[in-house]
Amino acid sequence: MTEDILLEARNLTKAFGGLVAVDDVSIKIRKKTMHAIIGPNGAGKTTLFNLLSGVLPPTKGEVYYKGEEITKLPPYKRAHLGIGRTFQITNIFPNLSVMENVRLAAQAKGKDNFKLLRRADDFQQYIDKAEEIIEVVSLKGKELFLARDLAHGEKRKLELGIMLACDPELLLFDEPTAGMSSEQVPELIDIITNIVHNGDRTAILVEHRMDMVMSISDIITVMNQGRILAEGSPGEIASNPQVQIAYLGDLYGELA
Amino acid sequence: MSQTPLKTKKPFFLRFKDERILLILFALMLAFPFVMNLITGSGLNDGITKFWQGQLIIFFIMAVFAMSYDLLIGFGGILSFGHAASFGGGAYTFALLMEHWAPNFIGKYRILIGSLDITEGIVLLIVFLAVVLVSILIGLLFSATSIRLKGAYFAMLTLALGTAMFILVKATDFHEWTGADEGLHGVYVPDWINPTQNRLTIYLISLVFLVVCYLVMKRMVNSPTGRVIIANRENEDRMRMIGYNPVLYRTIAFVSASFFAGLAGALYSIWNTSATPTMVSAVTTVNALIMTILGGMGTLVGPILGAAIMQTISQFFYTWFGARWPLVFGVLFILIVMFLPYGIIGTWRMKRNDIKGGWQKLLRLLSKKEDL
């Protein structure tokens, strides 16, 4: 079932000097699934993310997207292929309006990036698309706010909006709820599941909130010390004794 | 349909609302030599009228140079200490060709349309095309340095490149061509744009040049490309992740800034009928930097205002303070940076509502007192 695989990493290794952050990781992401990657702090989740999105070059190993090797492709080219990502630490354009943040992302794939002598506001299609997306991530009414003036939760939503405006097929969420209060989380989960399921998209999710991971993901990969410890459905993972010892133990025990 | 201000298309005449003040200033500048002539009666090409036209010509040209610097630093977020290389490059390209090539060409060939001799026009056109070409090449050279370096390292490399250009034009090896330390003086310029004989022509050309450059640059920073360049200043990592190649957009910023700077340099060379190493030196870059900071980075109007202030100050401070004027100017500059951190225009745009509100309050208070 190779056509079923959207993204594949083979023997991916990343070493920072002597520290091996990601150690010989092979992972397959199936189409239209919500694939969560969990693991204790320092397990190499974010590094794996950076390897998949092209922010860091791997020391060894390859990455395939739709069967084609993309290991050496810079991030902006991966974005054109349909890989979008969010960041653990909010990463937006702070001094631009919410509208402009999303509009720029919408413009990225278009063919109007090199029109030096036309007015950007005359390209209505990007503005329309941006408005549509701002509604999806429930930031309506804040279009003209500067991004830096938004509340933290709203910035996280804007981050989703920027990613969404690039029309990605594969979404990489790096701790989308980082720094958010528990009351704000359900709304964000709704937005994320809506984006993924209604858009027929595939998502990789790194998250610390176990309740969230267990409820929304189809497959879970558990990482520990740069290696893959286990992989399976939420039920399998929760009942895996190895995982419970290494990581889940207290956290999931509390919830159950 | 939602009604955000972004969606409504302004009627044509309202699009110029922001430029109203500039339009008035343009009209004033256009009328200036003639009004001055009426008042003083000294003749358009004589005495004080001629002198002030000269001062304004320098202002117009330096304003374009400062705006081009603003494209880089204000909109692109690129701090280059070698921008004078483009300015001087334009000036030297113009002066070298006019000195060594144009007289020969004009001596040998005559291009006529009917009985109209357009040789000089064609020569100027070719020379300006060369200026554009050289400016673009210099822009590409500088942008190539920005591919791997960032921040202070990048700034240092631009300084080094700029200084390399400075040393190149001063090199005694090329004395025969460039005049080395002295530069090129008394460069051949066709009579109809000669600043001594026909100052009004060059005045009007410089004024139109400023206005056209301003309008084009303003359009550029609001274009799809310009918006990407601004976003690049804000957050380069995010740019990559949404599918833009930052290097490409930095190159565009460099090349367009260099293009305008080169043209300004060539025009400055016409005005002086010379090209000197000072035009390529870091001092010239720093002048543009000061103008941009004074007026406000990323505003385009700011650098124009900054250039006007610099021109006025260097004129009057010299008569007031003598050779020590840069010292006084330095203190003034520090004060401006301390109290108007975003420059004059930048701070005004941020505090506009506060200032207007304050005025209205004051006026209301005053009018109440009158009632009493």
Structure description:
The complex is a heterodimer of chains A (256) and B (372). Chain A has 256 residues and is an alpha/beta fold. Chain A folds into two domains: 1-82 and 169-256, Rossmann fold (3-Layer(aba) Sandwich); 93-167, no CATH class. Chain A is 38% helix and 24% strand. Chain A has helices at residues 45-53, 75-81, 98-108, 124-136, 152-165, 185-198, 210-216, 234-239, 241-255, and strands spanning 5-16, 19-30, 34-38, 60-65, 68-69, 83-85, 170-174, 202-206, 219-224, 227-232. In chain A, strand 4 (60-65) and strand 5 (68-69) form a beta hairpin. In chain A, helix 3 (98-108) crosses helix 4 and helix 4 (124-136) packs across helix 5 (152-165). The radius of gyration of chain A is 19 Å and the shape is globular. The model of chain A has no long low-confidence stretch (mean pLDDT 88). The relative contact order of chain B is 0.15. Chain B has 15 helices and four strands. Chain B has helices at residues 20-40, 47-75, 84-100, 102-108, 119-145, 151-170, 175-178, 199-221, 224-234, 236-241, 246-272, 282-295, 301-321, 325-339, 343-371; strands at 112-113, 116-117, 184-185, 274-275. With 372 residues, chain B is mainly α. Chain B has a two-stranded antiparallel ribbon with strand order 1-2. In chain B, strands 3-4 form a two-stranded antiparallel sheet. Residues 1-8 of chain B have low confidence and may be disordered.
Instruction: Give the helix tally of chain A.
Output: 9
Number of domains of chain B: 1
CATH topology of chain B: ABC transporter involved in vitamin B12 uptake, BtuC
At CATH level 2, the architecture of chain B is Orthogonal Bundle
- Our Rg estimate of chain A from Cα atoms comes to 19 Å
Q: What distance separates the N and C termini of chain B?
A: 51 Å
Mean pLDDT score of chain A, rounded? 88
Envelope shape of chain A: globular
Helicity of chain B, in percent?
over 70%
In terms of quaternary structure, the protein is heterodimer
The greatest interface between two protein chains, and residues involved on each side, is: A-B, 45 and 31 residues
Could you say what the CATH topology of the largest domain in chain A is called? Rossmann fold
Helix content percent band of chain A: 25-40%
Rg of Cα set of chain B:
23 Å
